[in-house]
């Protein structure tokens, strides 16, 4: 099945503590239906010192459900994602707001 949200997409948060914030998706977990967005849904974690990493309290992104994020259209507003079959049989993502193709 084709993914509506992919790695590298710019998204906006629709609900929750970070509502209205935008960021780039850097990991998608399709089995869980969640994604990691840079700078969004930050949580503090206590980390023990290891040979390669320093210990202390670190901030890291927590996964956010795919239903709570939406792709950002060219005008900066959230848009739904649809699919269109091209003449040569390839499937491309389409922004519902403007009808423009997302994938070049």
SSE arrangement:
Blueprint: E1 10-13, E2 22-29, E3 34-37, E4 42-47, E5 56-61, E6 64-65, E7 69-72, E8 78-79, E9 81-85, E10 91-95
Antiparallel strand pairs: 1-2, 1-7, 2-3, 3-6, 4-5, 7-8, 9-10
Give keywords:
SH3 type barrels; 104 residues; mainly beta; 10 strands; 6-stranded antiparallel sheet
Molecular structure report:
It contains no helices and 10 strands. The protein has strands at residues 10-13, 22-29, 34-37, 42-47, 56-61, 64-65, 69-72, 78-79, 81-85, 91-95. The strands form 3 sheets. It has a 6-stranded antiparallel β-sheet with strand order 6-3-2-1-7-8, with no helix packed on it. Strand 7 (69-72) and strand 8 (78-79) form a beta hairpin. The chain is elongated and about 55 Å long.
- CATH topology assignment of the domain at 10-78: SH3 type barrels
CATH class of the domain at 10-78: Mainly Beta
Helix and strand run:
EEEEEEEEEE
Q: Examine the secondary-structure arrangement and name the CATH architecture of the domain at 10-78.
A: Roll
Number of helices: 0
Please give the largest β-sheet. Answer: 6 strands, antiparallel
Q: Nearest-angstrom radius of gyration? A: 17 Å
What is the CA–CA distance across the termini? 19 Å
Task: Please identify the structural class as seen in this structure.
Answer: mainly beta
Got a strand count? 10
Overall outline: elongated
């Amino acid at each position: 099945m084709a993914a509506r949200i992919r790695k590298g997409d710019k998204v906006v948060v629709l609900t929750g503590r970070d509502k209205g914030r935008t960021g780039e998706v850097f990991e998608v977990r399709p089995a869980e239906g969640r994604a990691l967005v840079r700078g969004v849904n930050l949580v503090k974690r206590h980390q023990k010192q290891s040979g390669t990493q320093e210990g202390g309290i670190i901030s890291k992104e927590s996964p956010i459900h795919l239903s709570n994020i939406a792709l950002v259209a060219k005008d900066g507003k959230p848009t739904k994602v649809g699919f269109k079959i091209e003449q040569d049989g390839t499937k491309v993502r389409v922004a519902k707001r403007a009808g423009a193709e997302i994938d070049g």
